[in-house]
Structures are given as structure tokens and as C-alpha cells.
Write a structure and sequence with these properties.
Blueprint lengths: L3 E6 L19 E2 L2 E2 L2 H9 L4 E6 L4 H8 L8 E6 L9 H4 L1 H4 L4 E5 L2 E4 L3 H15 L1 E7 L7 E5 L5 E6 L8 E2 L3 E4 L3 H5 L12 H10 L3 E5 L5 E4 L3 H18 L6 H7 L5 H10 L4 H14 L1
């Protein structure tokens, strides 16, 4: 059974208000494309074609208008509503029928990753999940005390996870992309709300750890990561994306090009997408990639 993707995009974006009054946070522009394009590209790059968007009820029509069925890019998009925000692990209550026994990759819509090896790391994490049961990224940061921190033994095995510890036992944190086998939905049902009333993703990860089914995928220090929670973080992330694209002469977040390069659509399909965005730099870039391969 194929692994399915989930993008949790139901955040209200209260720290970004009033910018999020007219538009859902995941659809705000991050440089030249919506923020949610970046995790969507990751899922496509690692071969996932069936993807569920979990959104707020008011946002459902605009998500459906923006992404449609996914057919034009060789993908299969579905949509479900999160009526009450109960934490990240709540995604596995909402997605249970959709997953129908599949393994999954759960991505947060506001976590952005950049780096030459990033997609390779994501694919490795997917493979580790398939072999062991689950996997998480381990990202080195200068301020781990603000996040969920990974504790390792001498053999680089995860032996503990602490949420916002005063004295972190490593500089590795778990950013917002998680890889789980088909048991995630049943395990999520055993969770109890935390002190802040949410079903914490850390608690779900802890269950896999207790069953010796949690693998670590390290991200190197060259990987750029942003949790775009406020206006300053969004601005910094946008500038990082712009600089990264200029330096490497590529477009990040182009899930359409990713779909083409994975063989999910052909050149005609990519050309139709380029024509759809023909008035923008983004559309022109896609067209240049297509024409470059023709010449």
C-alpha cells in the first residue's frame, strides 16, 4: 500500500493578523508562491501522489479553487475540515478514513526547508519509516530549548524527547515533518490532551519511541529551516528563498516541476501549467525549463 501525504493547513494565523484576515496563513505568499507550496513540493519529490489538505471550514472553497483535484499535475488531492484545533496529532483522527490503513507523511504548512540535500534526506526518512515504523528529522539549531529536543545514545539512537527543556541534552530538534506507519491513527486514539488542551505530536512520537519503532534522519547544518509563525519570520524566510533560488538558479516550491520530473505529467502537461502562469516570472521560469529541454 502506498504512502499518503497529509498537509495540516488549518492554523488561524493569529500571530500574523491582520495579514491573515483576508487569506488563510498557508496561502500567504512566501516570496513568489504560497507558503504551502513548499511542503507540497517535498511530498511530491519523495514520490507521494495522494495528498490530503486539512483546512479550516471557511478556507475550504479557496483551497479547492487553488489546487483542485490535482489531476492536472498527475496527483490526487483530497480535503478535510478541522473544526476545532486540537493539536497536530488530531490530524490522525481527521485523516483516518482517508488513510485507510496507509502509512503517511504529515507536513506542517508553515515549515519551510531549503538545502541541496534536503529532498534526499526526506526520501531517506521515508525509507526508514517503511523499515522501522516511524522517523523524524533531527535538525541542529542554536536555541534547542524552544523546541522538542532529541536525546541520543552513543550510537546515535534516539533514547528520549523533551519538550522545551531548560537544559537541552542535544542541539537537535524535531521540525514539522513526520513519517509514520499505518498504526498512527490507532496510536493517536490513546493520547490524552496536554496541559494546553492539545493532542501533542511529541506524545505520538514518544509512543513509537517506546516501541523501538522510531528512526532518526539527521539534517545537516546547511539545511535552512523556518517556522514562519510571525511576520518577521515570514519576511526572513522569503528573503532566504529568494537568495537560495538566485544562488542555485532553481525554483523551490514548484510542485508542478516536481511532478514533471517525477514523471507524473509529461511535457504537454507542464507546458499547460506554464501557460496558465504565463504573465508571471514563475510561469516564465517553468516555460524556460520546458523549452530548455526541447532545444
Amino acid at each position: 500500500m502506498k504512502t499518503k501525504g497529509i498537509i495540516l493547513a488549518a492554523g488561524k494565523g493569529t500571530r500574523l493578523m491582520p495579514a491573515t484576515l483576508p487569506a488563510s496563513k498557508p496561502l500567504l505568499p512566501l516570496y513568489d508562491k504560497p507558503m504551502i507550496y513548499y511542503p507540497l513540493e517535498t511530498l511530491v519529490r519523495i514520490g507521494i501522489r495522494e495528498i490530503l489538505f486539512i483546512v479550516q471550514e471557511d478556507d475550504l472553497p479557496i483551497f479547492q479553487k487553488t489546487f483542485g483535484s490535482g489531476e492536472e499535475v498527475g496527483l490526487n488531492f483530497s480535503y478535510k475540515i478541522q473544526k476545532v484545533q486540537r493539536g497536530i496529532s488530531d490530524a490522525y483522527f481527521i485523516a483516518e478514513d482517508y488513510l485507510n490503513g496507509s502509512s503517511s507523511v504529515l507536513a506542517l504548512s508553515d515549515n519551510i526547508f531549503l538545502g541541496k540535500k534536503y529532498f534526499s534526506y526526506a526520501e531517506q526518512a521515508l525509507n526508514k519509516m517503511k523499515k522501522i515504523g516511524s522517523s523524524v528529522f533531527g535538525l541542529p539549531v542554536p536555541d534547542p530549548e524552544k523546541f522538542g529536543v532529541i536525546e541520543l545514545d552513543n550510537n546515535e539512537n534516539i533514547i528520549g524527547i523533551e519538550e522545551k527543556p531548560l537544559k537541552p541534552k542535544s542541539n537537535l530538534i524535531i521540525p514539522g515533518m513526520y513519517f509514520f506507519d499505518s498504526n498512527a491513527c490507532e496510536l493517536a486514539k490513546t493520547l490524552k490532551p496536554s496541559d494546553r488542551g492539545e493532542l501533542e505530536i511529541t506524545d505520538l512520537i514518544q509512543i513509537y519511541l517506546s516501541q523501538n519503532k522510531l528512526a532518526l534522519q539527521r539534517l545537516d547544518e546547511n539545511i535552512i529551516w523556518h517556522d514562519t509563525g510571525n511576520a518577521d519570520a515570514l519576511l526572513v524566510a522569503a528573503q532566504k528563498v529568494k537568495n537560495y533560488e538566485i544562488d542555485n538558479k532553481i525554483k523551490m516550491g514548484s510542485y508542478e516541476i516536481a511532478a514533471y520530473e517525477k514523471g507524473f505529467i509529461d511535457k504537454d502537461g507542464l507546458l499547460k501549467i506554464a501557460q496558465k502562469f504565463s504573465k508571471s516570472d514563475y510561469g516564465q521560469y517553468i516555460k524556460d525549463v520546458y523549452l530548455g529541454e526541447v532545444n
